[in-house]
Amino acid sequence: MLARGIAAACVALPILACAGPTADFPTIDSDEIREERRRQVEDHLRTYVTQYARLYAVYYRVATANTEFCPHVAPRHGFAAVTPQELPEGYRMAGRSALQLDREHPTVIVVADGSPAAKAGLAVGDILLAFDGEPIPTGEDAREWMMAKLDDRSLSRLRVTALRGNRQHLLDIVPVLGCGYPIHLVTRADPGAATNGQWIVFHSAMLRVARTDAELAHVVGHELAHITLGHIEKRQGNQIVGAVGGLLVDVALAAVGLDSRGGFTRRFGDAGARAFSVDFEREADYVGAYFIARAGYEPREGEALWRSMGQEDPQSIRYAGTHPTSAERFVMMQQAIGEIAFKKNRGLPLRPEMRTTQTLAQKSEQASKD
Questions:
Q1: Where are the domains of the chain?
Q2: CA distance readout (Å), 79 to 15, 131, 179
Q3: Into which CATH architecture does domain 41-70+73-179 fall?
Q4: CA distance to 106, 209, 243, 269, 307, per residue, from 237 (Å)
Q5: Model confidence pLDDT, tens digit, residues 283-302
Q6: Alpha carbon distance 152, 175 (integer Å)
């Protein structure tokens, strides 16, 4: 709008002598632009689905291998499906052409190797019509209905009616239990991943930095460890403790006529949230290494991730913020890998070493025995 206003002023008042481009560049055809836009959108969708399929397969292995550590478990069938209506509005037509999605019914976009779905014979491109003889709703209602059905722990078997070509197939999928936290992939140029304790979000750039599945498994294990170790709840608790301390300062200042406008409450709360942040990250790295080893990945094949992260963000090589430096994470990972290898060689259970905490009563009882 501003540019148009300036251009209008230049036309109305030639005396201003506004400067313009001097190159004799070719005229651009709007139809060609639309066609190129369509190609780029389709390319992006194909890339996104390829990345999601890789992430899903790695997460499935880690999540089903560490069920005993997860507070929340759910049936894991080992496939994902999508309808065009789940895509952003400008991507729906491209989704049908680039991904060969059915107009109304969910289309399978990934089947994890070795999963119950793979064993039952489900394949990428299958169109899902019914679960246990009940037709799957079409359009926007399909996803919520499917998720409720797939998360139903009372179902020991799921009979899927799938359309492949012109033929319907009845497939019996016997789910296994796994960590029940959904994963999401978002298109972001910065490599990263995060969890709120309920689900895990991965940035697409992380799949570029994590060049092998073993490296990607390190990220998956790390985020899953944050959940199983209760780090989100601990941070929230520390934030509350800090905020309460700051509130006492604000109240004390108010009592003598000084209005701090809640500044100490906010600052102390922020400080509380950051307390033990680096140690939480160290702990998640350590426990996550065990998670990926239990999933059948070779942890040593993924240790190079932290060197790659150092090259992606050179600042992280020397200076720590809320995370350890990339150099420290690499060295610490080598130590964890050595510990895991020691246990493997001796046939010991692959369980992380955890500090035991005693209550005051237990300590008092122990002291009396001593």
A1: 41-70+73-179, 212-345
A2: 67, 14, 15
A3: Roll (2.30)
A4: 41, 33, 10, 10, 33
A5: 899 999 999 999 999 988 87
A6: 10
